[in-house]
Write a structure and sequence with these properties.
Number of strands: 9
CATH class of the largest domain: Alpha Beta
Number of domains: 2
Distance between the termini: 49 Å
Mean pLDDT: 87
Order of helices and strands: EEEHEEHHHHEHEHEEH
CATH architecture of the largest domain: 3-Layer(aba) Sandwich
CATH superfamily of the largest domain: P-loop containing nucleotide triphosphate hydrolases
Low-confidence stretches: 1-5
Shape: globular
Helix content: 25-40%
Length: 263
């Protein structure tokens, strides 16, 4: 397998958010997000939890530049542009009339990724996400849900983003497929030194994947920023669920999230 030298190696701070404020109302009397400040390092995965409607997905859209904040700044690699972001959704955005290969070729067509770089990265990513080259001539409708989501993730990664935004990308998958794909994604982030911000409603997923868990409260501010650490080096999102420390993290995060939900 080709290793991380294929990929852009990001600096220590991949994302910095300072004093972010956003409201859907013109008078901003009820902000969805209020005074959010946060940084994410390269190689780090953070998960965002909170009550429905608290602004989790809104924050991803603001980071991606799809919406403009009322106040505050968002910097990607010390740059206010959004050219190094990949956005992965719960439902894939594959074009059903194009083959898998043609869908993946968008990185060349839109992102102007050189063909040789695209080809080498494609072979590496197919291997990392356990997909056969045979699927390249297939159409999205011929793939299982897990295969489609893997292709969707690879499609984003072929643009060589520094920062990945994920909005519940594993929630529609069956449990076994979800665990395998979580593991593949986790190893990719760590091997290639990317950064990722994951929105999820699944506490177990947040603990299994994340270095930190952010809990948003109903006032649009950060209620808690919790480090997720384990006492050994080999960490796998599937096997980590069985250790005692996992349960300790779960109880702490659930207690804080339950308090927020009940407000």
């Amino acid at each position: 397998m080709v290793t991380s030298n294929l990929y852009f190696r990001a600096p220590k701070k991949a994302l910095t958010i300072s004093g972010l404020k956003f409201s859907y109302q013109k008078d901003a009397s009820l902000p969805v997000l209020n005074d959010i400040s946060l940084s994410v390092r390269a190689g780090e995965i953070i998960s965002v939890l909170g009550k429905s409607g608290c602004g989790k997905s809104t924050r991803l859209n603001l980071i991606a530049g799809l919406m403009k904040p009322i106040a505050g700044e968002i910097s990607i690699n010390h740059d206010k542009s959004r050219c190094n972001i990949g956005y992965i959704f719960q439902e894939d955005a594959l074009m059903p009339w194009r083959t898998v290969k043609a869908n993946l070729a968008l990185a060349q067509e839109i992102g102007k990724v050189p063909h040789q770089q695209w080809q080498v990265s494609l072979m590496d990513l197919l291997s990392r996400f356990h997909l056969s080259e045979n699927i390249l001539e297939m159409y999205p409708t011929q793939l299982s849900g897990g295969m489609r989501q893997r292709v969707s993730i690879i499609q984003s990664l072929l643009f060589n983003p520094q920062l990945l935004l994920l909005d519940e990308p594993f929630s529609a998958l069956d449990f076994c497929t979800k665990l395998r794909l979580e593991g593949e994604f986790y190893r990719f982030i760590k091997d290639t030194y990317r950064a990722a911000v994951l929105v999820t409603h699944d506490i177990e997923e947040a603990i299994a994947l994340s270095d930190r868990v952010i809990i948003l409260n109903n006032n649009g501010t950060i209620e808690a920023d919790i480090s997720v650490t384990f006492d050994y080096c080999q960490r796998d999102p599937e096997s980590i669920r069985g250790v005692a420390e996992f349960g300790e993290h779960y109880r702490l995060i659930w207690a804080k999230l339950k308090a927020v939900i009940s407000q």
